[in-house]
Specification:
Elements lengths: L1 H6 L9 H14 L22 E4 L12 E4 L2 H27 L6
Parallel strand pairs: 1-2
């Protein structure tokens, strides 16, 4: 649904990693020529230019459309990513506990 919203001009039109960049490569590949000229393209985060390169966790996760060149993250990038995920999980757990312990006004 989010990809449909992005293509139709709804949403913020920004696709990030967890939104399904690999799936989006197939959406872009299968758009009829000229049918959606304003469909957002995949951008290089450093240059903000359209790119045909996407990163994958490993070759086992390499499901990009064949028009795209895939690059595996190196181990340092993966370690940083997993540390970020762990930090987010900890924050969400704390938020959840706080919410559970906070008295509700109308219960």
């Amino acid at each position: 649904q989010r990809l449909k919203d992005i293509l139709s001009g709804g949403s913020d039109r920004k696709i990030v990693n967890m939104d399904g960049i690999l799936a989006y490569t197939h959406v872009l590949k299968n758009l009829p020529k000229g049918s959606m000229p304003n469909a957002p393209r995949i951008l290089d985060p450093r240059t903000q230019q359209s790119t045909q390169h996407v990163h994958v966790v490993s070759q086992a996760w390499n499901a990009a459309a064949e028009e795209y060149t895939t690059h595996e993250f190196d181990s340092a990038d993966l370690q940083n990513f997993f540390k970020q995920v762990q930090s987010h999980v900890r924050v969400r757990k704390i938020q959840h506990l706080y919410h559970q312990l906070t008295p509700k006004c109308c219960s």
